[in-house]
Fold this protein.
Amino acid sequence: MEKKRVFRMAITALLFALVAIPMVAVAGDAKNGEKLALGRPVANCVSCHHFPKIEFPSDIAPDLVEVMKGYAEKDRDTVRQWVYDARKFNPDTFMPPYGASKLLIFKGEEKLSAEEQKKLIDKRVDDIVEFLYSLKKK
C-alpha cells in the first residue's frame, strides 16, 4: 500500500514539473523584442524613451534602463501591462496601448483571425517585456 502511495506522489510531482516548468520557461524572445522596441516605425519606443547605444536618445519619457531596475521578476505581469495598455495605470498617459489597440499587428496580418492576431500581439508584447528585462543586465 505504501509503495502505491509513494508511486502516486512521484507521478504527481513529475506531472507538476512537466506542467510548471514550461509555464516558467515561456518567456519572450529578447532579440525580437529589441527589434520591436527600437525599430521604427514598429513599436518605436525610442521616440520617447532613452535606451543604451541609441544615437540621439529621447528624454520625453523615463529611461527604461533605470525604470527596469525597480522591477523584479515577480513584477513581470505589471511590466507586461505597461506595454500592453499603460492606461490601466494612468488613463492620461501618452504611451500607446500597443496590445489593446493592435499596434503590433503589421501590414498583411490584419487579415488573420482575431484569435491569431491576439496570439501575435501577446507574443510580441512578451518579446518586448523580455527585452526590457534584459536591460537590467546592462
